[in-house]
Amino acid sequence: MNQTSGVYQAYQGNSYLFGGNAPYVEEMYENYLADPTSVPDSWRGYFDALQHVPALDGTDARDVPHLPVINAFAERAKQGVTQVVVASAANPELARKQVFSQQLIAAYRNVGQRWADLDPLKRAEREAIPDLDPAFYGFTDADQETVFSTNNTFFRRETMPLRELLNALRETYCGSIGAEFMYLTDQTQKRWWQERLEGIRSKPNFSVAEKKHILDRLTAAEGLERFLHTKYVGQKRFSLEGGESFIVAIDRVIQQAGAKGVQEIVIGMAHRGRLNVLVNTLGKMPKDLFAEFDHTAPEDLPAGDVKYHQGFSSDVSTPGGPVHLSLAFNPSHLEIVNPVVEGSVRARMDRRGDTKGQQVLPILVHGDAAIAGQGVVQETLALAQTRGYSTGGTVHIVINNQIGFTTSDPRDARSTLYCTDIVKMIEAPVLHVNGDDPEAVALAAQLAIEYRMTFSKDVVIDIVCFRKLGHNEQDTPSLTQPLMYKKIAQHPGTRKLYADKLATQGLGETLGDDMFKAYRAALDEGRHTVDPVLTNFKSKFAVDWAPFLGKKWSDAADTAIPLSEWKRLAERITTLPASVTPHQLVKKVYADRADMGRGELNVDWGMGEHMAFASLVASGYAVRLSGEDCGRGTFTHRHAVIHDQNREKWDVGTYIPLQNVADNQAPFVVIDSILSEEAVLGFEYGYASNDPNTLVIWEAQFGDFVNGAQVVIDQFIASGEVKWGRVNGITLMLPHGYEGQGPEHSSARVERFLQLAADTNMQLVQPTTASQIFHVLRRQMVRPLRKPLVIFTPKSLLRNKDATSPLSEFTKGGFQTVIPEHSTEVHKHASAVKRVVACSGKVYYDLVKKREEKGAHDVAIIRVEQLYPFPHKAFATELKRYPNATEIVWCQDEPQNQGAWFFVQHNIHDNMLEGQRLGYAGRAASASPAVGYAHLHQDQQKTLIEAAFGKLKGFILSK
């Protein structure tokens, strides 16, 4: 036994920590040093207390763990090292330094990325970070060869001299990849990252073939941009130059995802680099892109869109088989495509029965300014792990050009250290990577997809690069960023740097030039630049949209159901299991619905909805209903989800009758969403865009909440078909009604939707009876036409007995775009009618009540239930019933500059008879949707109803 062995054995024998508990205690202590929250509260309190126990030498040194010191001594003993300092009560210095070495490791894991070599332009000075400096812990040059335990690291050595340990930490965490993951609360995931990064010191080991492929992708990225820059001078294309490594990253993600079993990938991105992705990733034929630049592409859409908004799809070969790629159509609202992509992915997952996203992958590409500045990013991230919206994790790639969109100073671009800090809200790890190191970019992409496929969570690749040209090709960035663009002008380009690097490795002096010439030849000939693109592959999960394309508008649809089917469905959805104890109010609702199903009571709105859903799922159409509080219904009319009063857990304490309609029914899904409008509506639009056989409904808690999703309405729902040819059958339910609840809870902004209505782009309806909601929901699926449907749903009418419908209206008939006058007294004396009041919505019931009070049977009241497309034929038919009527009045609850008035004027006028005059009865124009004082609301309501029967003032139109 040598001297060192004796010292080690003596230390081992005298240490009070030896025994069965020592490894357990020491490991907990090391975890505590790295992250105090990672140990149980009882142990944390104990360890906290130890920090205040004075050391034996009278200093304030912290208590130290012994096991790492013991391991270090043991290793030195095995290596025959004889010059050691005995860690004992007489000399605790080495033990303290062992603790400090562990703190140093933890520091590099936590903040090492702040010293990473990330900026290709080398503009920023490295800031001082004391935690990463050995001197901060008291280490000196004399400690460089001192051996310390590498406990809980993955450097493949149990002990290392301080010098080697520092080199390993700096190579791993301060090289071309700066990793952020220590904020993850899951220890398994943290150790996964430590093992992956430390095991290779963040350095890839690619084969010659892989390196050549990386160069090939860089050549393609740069080659396309150069070609376009010379051939189409000054035309906008939002160049990728300076960020060519992005093409390497997305290529690597796709190939590695395919190798792991992914079969579909949906990509969402804004302008920067989009044309490059279309050609060099998805395989769009260069000649087709050039035709768009030359303005010779076919213009077969009513409006069309610019080339850098266009979507595309293709099938490419990967090591795991064919992968279908879809680039989502995208407007200029940057990150708004994020939830649309997520919804599209979720629809594809549901179609495949892929509950964890192992077959379908979303990729979102962000700009550095947009990911930090756009609120929809946060809303979409918040959906990531929720049950109704999870897509198994998204791979985010940031093209970080360090300047934002136009002229922003980095100090004004955001309030966070990194543009990606927003993703920490969902504990998504981030790999910051230098865009001038394409191998590091490829490695980051590979690690990202491995993490996503392993843990089904979001992950971010932040490619720190630059933008060679301006925001667009007509911009001059040096006007506001002179020094930055002097550096950019001197930069040789990532492709040149990497080609030179491979040349020094013996891969050929002319390899880079040869590749560039070959790529240019492919462009000149208009050939594919992606090899191989599969042209004849078709997945069995592909959706056939053919039955819904090219259909002309028609209101006709067979939406009634047989009486026997009505009763069967009604019984199924109103019979609750004995094991479920509903709330007494809910029990009463379902008892009444059972009576409605038997025809013993008129059917109310909630039952009308339920029967529409039940009949659809029984016929094979799925239903997906989401929104804030939509399971119960904001106004407690729906109760689609019954909560057992004796159990609280959601998964075992609820019962959904509509999921128990038939043995082989289609799915019925109802989701109480997060408190978000924009992202949730975008998600549902994306879902509906990929599933024409599901009735996809988003319901606003109050109609005015749709204001928060206006971008989705403007850029997708209203215009997606005329811009991109994308048909979509999403349905919006927007509670609307003037009941004195103030400005924010009265109006769903009917006028905004009507202003967007053109080209039969969507359907805008305001049903007033239970049978009408039944028929319009069924019409949305039964009719072979997919157009967005906006339903302005009621509030007070949900419980108004006058709005209920007899059973016969469900077993025959259909949705009425115009509901005729119901009064038999008016019908008997139709020739005596002098005035026709036309209206839409709740105000109808107020008008009928006032007419009865007045006995004004010379006034006919008709309801326009479908505001757009305006039902000219049905409306004209009703006017002709009253040939002697000289006055037509449009009556509405909304202020004159809002509601339907400005839209319906010319439509009514087109159908008026000779000599008739048109007037308005409603609230005066207002800057606010409604008043906030109850008494003022009542006064206004009384006045507008009186005006509908009074002397016509301010004639608007005559014929």
UniProtKB/TrEMBL annotation:
InterPro entries: 2-oxogl_dehyd_N, 2oxoglutarate_DH_E1, DH_E1, KGD_C_sf, ODO-1/KGD_C, THDP-binding, Transketolase-like_Pyr-bd. It is an enzyme of class 1 (oxidoreductase). Its cofactor is thiamine diphosphate. Residues 603-800 form the Transketolase-like pyrimidine-binding domain. Its EC number is 1.2.4.2. GO terms for molecular function: oxoglutarate dehydrogenase (succinyl-transferring) activity; thiamine pyrophosphate binding. It comes from the Bacteria. Keywords: Oxidoreductase, Thiamine pyrophosphate. GO terms for biological process: tricarboxylic acid cycle. One of its GO terms (cellular component) is cytosol. NCBIfam families: 2oxo_dh_E1, PRK09404.1, PRK12270.1. E1 component of the 2-oxoglutarate dehydrogenase (OGDH) complex which catalyzes the decarboxylation of 2-oxoglutarate, the first step in the conversion of 2-oxoglutarate to succinyl-CoA and CO(2). Belongs to the alpha-ketoglutarate dehydrogenase family. This is 2-oxoglutarate dehydrogenase E1 component. It comes from Serpentinimonas raichei. The gene is sucA.
